[in-house]
Amino acid sequence: MFSGRPIDSHAEPNEFRAGDSGLSVSDLAGSELISQENPNELSPPKELELKADIQTYDSRRKIFLAVGNVELLINGASLKADRIELDQEFNSLKAYGSVRFSRGSNYFQASSFTYDFINKVGELKDVYGLLELDSSLFNFSSKDKAQSNTNAQNKGSRNELKSFETSKENKAIPDLGLLAVETKLESSEESLEADLGMACPPNLPIIPDWQPHPWAVTLWGGQMIDSSFGDAFVFKGRKRPEYLLGIGLQKRIYRSGVFSLELEGNVFQHDARKQSGGKFNQDIPYKDSPAQNFGEATLGIGARLWVQPWLSFSIVEGLSYYTQIGNYENTFRTKTAQLLNYLGFEIEASLNRRLSLIGRLHHRSGAFGLFDGVHGGGNGYLVGFRYRWGTQVEKQISDMAPIPVGCPGRHITEKSPSSFEVPVREDLVKDTKTNESLSDLIIAEDNSFLDINNSPAYAEKPSRRQEEDLREKRISLIDQRVSNLKLENTLTIEKRIGVPKALRNIDEKNVYGGVKPSQLTYIGNTKLIKGRIKRWRVQATKVVITPNGWNADLMGFTNDPYTPSQVRIDAQDVFAEEQKDGSTIIKTGQNQLILEERLSIPVARSYKLEKVEEVENRWVLGIDRDDRDGFYIGRNLKPINLSKNYNLYLQPQYNFQRAIDGKTGSYIAPGSSSESKEVVQSTAFSDLLGLEASLEGNLWDWRLETNADISTFNTKNLANGSRYWSAITKTSELPLVGEIDTRLFSTYRYRAWNGSLGESDIYSAFGTFLQKKGEWEWGKSKNNYLLRIGAGNYQAENYRENDLSDLWRGNLFASITNEYSLFKGKSAKLDANNAFRYSPKAILPGLGITSNINFSFSGYGDGRRQALFGISGGPNMTFGRFDKKLFSYTRLSLTSGLTFKRGSSPFTFDQAIDLGTLGIGLTQQVYGALLLNAGFEYNIDPASQYYGDIINSNVEMMIQRRAYDFGIYYNPYKKIGGFRIRLNDFSFNGTGIPFIPSSNTPDKAF
User: Fold this and answer.
1) 594-607 pLDDT, tens digit each
2) Model pTM?
3) CB burial class (10 A; 0-12, 13-18, 19+) of residue 296?
4) Which three-class secondary structure string do you get for 711-740?
5) How far apart, in Å, are the Cα atoms of 11 and each of 6, 14, 494?
6) Contact predicate 796/765, CB 8 Å
7) Is the dihedral of CA 151, 155, 156, 161 positive or negative?
């Protein structure tokens, strides 16, 4: 703190008037730039309040100076720094050292901050902050005056603070000379929450290299199986007396953190014993095939992901060549070939730094007919031992960011233009030992640092697990400055393949149908990207403020409240535009998605962050076996605005699989009846083209949505290659009843799913229904309900006969679901290393019961009736708190359903068929963030022809983390698969700390 003597002795001090509330600017008539007609245009802020240890005025430079614990209040915004300079007209300011700027939920800190109130331009250096997209940041307009006045009434941590006040009588601010005023500091019991100071970046040990060895050799052994590709994943199939021995060589050709691409080649010897043959390509179907020995060679490229220092997964795509066609493939397939597609799914577990144990699903097939029209092939299970060697040290992917002034390792040594040196507290410039390499130190139990080389516990080089443990120990010591963490929203990126386009009302079936494990929810279509993240932590070397917003050449974003961040986005050419409603839209150039500071993934070249995400999904790669014979490629065009109320969405398609095969089996013969079976036809060029179209808009008070799914433009097949569905909906408010949804619908060739019966077509339908739904809570009980009544005309498949029935159908449906908590345990400690280590929510061990009762009555035009009463439910059990690395989280759901039926439907699509069901759902932590999520549903109705069959199943492997999760799933029964990435959005108290590793070189930009 400075003394009270004048610094410039030749200047004589003039009259100085002191107040009690800090620096106040109520009238700035001395500025020639003020517009009397529009005071908000080209004018400085109407009100400033300043608190500081020392306040002075330099008449030579015509600036006000505030030094030491400076706080400036500007129309609801707070600016704190070690030093602030204001020009005489209060048109601009400069802040240096430990700069902290906050407005509402927004918080920015920097080494320095300059701002011109007249031109609304400025600059921050060495920036870290919290950004709330729903509110403005650098907006100093007087509309926030009320908020500023409220802040002015709060008492600061200093009882008596001096102020400057402009004269209302004089046009110019009087020449005060140069005066230094010392303010007496005293404690106050009524002070605001203690200022934590700058949020400084931790200096962590380097990230251990999980796999530095680029070369590998593998010894293989295994056995072939008799199963489909989907069944092989769930170990459903018969082992065949055909054995493999082989050797493989791998070379890593690309690497980004824990992700790598590998070139591999394998040679195998097949020893096939005498075994049962198939019905194809032999004189006597199913006769035994003789013993056989032949060779196989595979060549492919593998994509590998390390999820733990000792655990990785790999997918290999390539070619498989048999020296002679295998008897099994030849007799169990209508057609086969020596050269087919190769696909391998592998899991690798390290035994030490070089030796690993391998398990692989070994699959070769015609890839849906791409290879000589071959469908199917062979499957086998392989196990092996892999030895790795060589060295390939990868540069850390994290960029470096300067340490801001006010943090350890960085302070101002040059004097400012006004000959003041910015005061820096001694505790902020002490050297620390945290920047030492992980290979040189460890953390002892008392949190001190020990030299590894001199520690008897680590006489040898630490293993990868030990390196990770040491790094985690250091991270656990970080003061995160975060509390009251709460999950608010999610941003989901999901791609599904194999979902029927015209399958609707999936969400309602999941919520209001019978109770099932969450793993068995119906899978419908979904947008590629949906959801939102409104709160981001940001970091940049420099941020430039403009009249329309602010920008940065390079900026890091993370949704993770904790440091180090589990996920972040490094974006170039960032521009933030503040909207009239106070929200912020951020546009970026090229982006890199960085996971765990190990994996860098290029993402969209341009991206927009706003209150509600609007992201275009352009190219589409899909599989539609029913209507498009397999693979197809689509391109989403930009929406066409037909009018103020209507938008048209188009997706032209090319049926790639159909082009390769030169034939199609998706349509009935031209001119035959609609209930006829599909036949194989040669394709014309018009069969290779398809289209998905959607028209959306508002028709008076109704919401209109109409869709077309056209898989061919061949006029001969157009009627049977098109599906349409359309609806208009409206929500009305009725007295006593509340909100009622009204829906008018029509469809052509609409798909419906009905358990064991699978898919069926509703050839055409039109009608209407009314529905009322809601939810309520009562103590430990959560409930929801749905009431629906409707009528329509349906032309659909007949359940008993191979033709279509054309009948009117009236339906009444009611459902109520209850969730009741019997027991809830306590969560782990609410911090980044325990409860929020792997989960965005704290996991509570417990036991709950979920139950559903539903009733349905349908009447048909031919006089038939079908009445159904269903009851289902079961326990949900959660074990563990998901805070340890191994088997610390298990969620088990068991549900049973029973349906009582009277009468029967003439239609297939609503025929009650699975009257007794058993569902099993399991979510199990395997190790660390790796989860197995699986569900199976069985028909347990003894009177059903499908008794004992699996009627639904889903298997998913997940990487679950606090800030994100990634899952790959497949439903073998419905042949629907996909992947999902979710980013989580949190609210929390506190500022957090910088998340990008820092450098001790101040001028080195990240």
Assistant:
1) 888 888 877 765 55
2) 0.72
3) buried
4) CCCCCCCCCCCEEEEEEEEEEEEECCCEEE
5) 8, 9, 70
6) yes
7) positive
